[in-house]
Amino acid sequence: MYRHYIKTLTLAGAVALAGTTAAQADCTDHLSAGADLWLEPNDSLATMLEPDCYAWQLFVALSWPGNVATQSADAGKALGDDGLTTWELWRNVRRGSQDAVFSDSGTDPGPWLTGATAVASRDASEFDALALQQLALLGGGAMPQIDDDSPFGNETRMNETTYAFVRDNTLYNTEGLQAAFDPASGVMNFPANAKEIKARWRIITEAEKPRYHWVDVVNSAGTTRPFGLTALHITTKDLPNWFWATFEHVDNKDSAVGGGVPGHEGWLAPSFDAYTCPNAPSGCDKAPAVVSGTKWENYVLRGTQIDFVDSRGRPTILANSVIERGFQDSSSCITCHARAAYDASGTFNGFFNPPPAKLGSVGAPDPKWFFSGQTVTTMQTDFIWSLMRACSSTTANSCR
Ligand code: HEC
Q: What is the model's pLDDT at position 351?
């Protein structure tokens, strides 16, 4: 069983109306020593009032060492202990990984714990060589697995709530998506505790290990290499249009760091973290005290996003320098994800078909992406792109 707690808006709202600052203190309390830091949070009010603090609360809970048998956080361990993090035990969207959500034949992926033994260690089947949107830039096709020449690994994983929704609604195959294409019923709606992550790794040296969360990965050529975590995207259904946060290893800041590893273009926009850096919210590039003394102190919150535009109508922009490499200045997590949609045949289009010269859309969604006149042309998947991985259960297909 995984554990999480849910606070209702009604209760927290009542506290705020009573004239206290309880809501403000809330997230900070959860990030203090002695708090149950491993608990997977689900706190809509915190996303709105203290998004940067809440991002760290999520980061700490999801980076907590996991219990392989239960595929959830291990309360008996301490942050920074060796072993796989909680999110590394979530279900992997990559077809061919042993704990995969999707398969070539579009079959039911089974109960949550089906893949438990498979995730006790990591291997090449868990990683994509490219981020899916970067595959699009290269013209699409099948996603390559990492091999001897791959300096990077990419992965996307679903928590138990997200996974259960996908499974209960048969969204793991094309036929299920076709059945869910229902213009009358509107968009899909994942439950409140739904969460997903997207992670980026790179091969690191022995000397770099103490400053990274790293795993040994056996690649398809049988060679074992240490992969260090360089970036982590987190999204949660705490808000109707989801809550978006992105973290990076501080070494990513300078494009020269990483020994000239291709793909490091450095940070083209400053970080914004009003929680860790209240007096210099833009640019202090530090981690909060709660992670001090652990490998996680080398990771920085690059920013959070809770809406398409700010209150002046200006598009909000947020990028991770390695996952959104090449389009940092035109990257809006929430806008690109709003475009995750498919047509009546179950085919995803958005920016993939045809791929534009430069990825990324910013600002509020354009109804033309989804409608032709009054007719629904594409069905939104509630901001979740990885449903694009679904294959047909009846015909040979070219799923990604
Ligand atoms: C140009 C489009 C684009 C932008 C911009 C973008 N993403 Fe994504 N994102 C994707 C695609 C495509 C996937 C699917 C990955 C897969 O299946 O592995 C994805 C996957 C994810 C996932 C896993 C959940 C899912 O949708 O499958 C998370 C979490 C995520 N992105 C967070 C972010 C955050 C945070 C940002 C902004 C810092 C961001 N993304 C910016 C296209 C984008």
A: 61
For 356, the token pair is 């534009």
Residue 167 contacts residue 176 (beta carbons within 8 Å): no
Nearest to 165 by CA among 91, 89, 86, 88: 91
Q: Probe ligand 1: pick from 138, 155, 330, 336, max atoms within 8 Å of CB?
A: 336
* Rounded CA separation 386/399 (Å): 11
Mean pLDDT of the chain: 85
Can you tell me which atom of ligand 1 is nearest the CA of 385? 26
Predicted local distance difference test score (pLDDT) of residue 1: 29
User: Is pLDDT above 60 for 249?
Assistant: yes
**For residue 385, pLDDT beyond 60:** yes
Radius of gyration of the chain (CA): 20
**Distance, CA of 150 to CA of 100 (rounded, Å):** 21
Question: Cβ(56)–Cβ(288) under 8 Å?
Answer: yes
Average pLDDT over residues 275-301: 92
Ligand 1 centroid to 210 CA: how many Å? Answer: 28
Q: Are 60 and 42 in contact (CB under 8 A)?
A: no
